[in-house]
Design brief:
mainly alpha; 5 helices; flat; hydrogen ion transport; ATP_synth_F0_gsu_mt; membrane; F-type H+-transporting ATPase subunit g
Length: about 120
């Protein structure tokens, strides 16, 4: 057997061994999610709820154009908005770190090392 065939055989046997636990855990997670969904009384949003959210968003966007709207916001509200923005930015940064698989920068090969392949 050559190396490729051996590797494929090993991967296939590993996948076969793991398929049982993976499917079992997926079913358990599905049942737990179902129980939480029922217990919390969750339901998909209705058309009326979508319409209400749309109207509220449009109202906010229209009022945001007015300078008096921003003057009527308290310092506590600005602080809370800043904290929410910082939290969102932190999640963005964690996503970047996960995507790069590195804390700083991307693992980019130099042009010199790329030229060796051609």
């Amino acid at each position: 057997m050559n190396n490729v065939t051996k590797t494929l055989t090993n991967a296939s046997s590993t996948a076969t061994k793991l398929s049982g636990p993976i499917f079992y855990n997926a079913k358990v997670a599905g049942q737990i999610a179902k129980q939480v969904y029922i217990r919390e009384g969750m339901a998909p949003p209705t058309g009326a709820q979508f319409e209400t959210a749309k109207e509220a968003s449009l109202k906010f966007l229209k009022s945001a154009r007015s300078a008096s709207t921003w003057k009527n916001i308290s310092k506590d509200q600005y602080l809370k908005a800043g904290l929410v923005a910082a939290e969102a930015y932190t999640f963005f940064l964690f996503g970047e770190i996960i995507g790069r698989r590195n804390f700083v920068g991307y693992d980019v090969q130099s042009a010199d090392s790329h030229a060796e392949h051609h």
